[in-house]
Write a structure and sequence with these properties.
By secondary structure, this protein is of the alpha+beta class. The chain has three helices and eight strands, in the order ββαββααββββ. Strand 5 and strand 6 form a beta hairpin.
């Protein structure tokens, strides 16, 4: 299964929890797990709280760790010998930021529901937008027993 997201900004956290929950309901599993994986090297999948000030803090932390204004060898096509395409983005910082985050999460499903803590949400972290992004979702489990 896939989730496709059109991002709108260079950097943003997009809550994909409702999309994941809809796929779990569609799959009809009672107990199992769901794995959500980014299919891109400049996005990440994270679980955290959906609180605007906290999301701003995350963005600022990642920018301090890998600032867009720094120099990255990846951005110098004279140095690179692999994976160079015409008109590609200057995004070395995005790749470095993604390295600090996970490319996937695996979460439990019980009683047909995604098991998250009170404040937890599943986010796509866009680090190099705007772009159209694809998430691969694998759901494994068993349906409710019939009596």
């Amino acid at each position: 299964m896939k989730i496709q997201i059109a991002t709108e900004r260079p950097f943003e956290f997009i809550d994909v929890t409702p999309d994941v929950e809809a796929l779990i309901a569609q799959a009809g599993i009672h107990v199992g797990f769901v794995n959500v994986q980014s299919l891109h090297t400049t996005t990440s999948i994270v679980v955290n709280e959906h609180e605007p000030q906290l999301l701003t803090d995350f963005a600022e932390m990642l920018e301090r760790a890998a600032p867009p204004t720094a120099s990255y060898r990846h951005d110098d096509v004279r140095l690179r010998t692999v994976n160079v395409i015409s008109g590609e983005r200057i995004n070395g910082h995005s790749h470095c930021q993604a390295l600090l985050l996970a490319s996937s999460v695996c979460l439990n499903v019980a009683n047909g529901c995604l098991q998250l803590g009170r404040w937890q949400r599943v986010f796509l972290a866009e680090l190099d937008g705007p772009q159209t992004r694809d998430l691969s979702v694998l759901i494994v489990g068993t349906s409710a027993p019939t009596h």
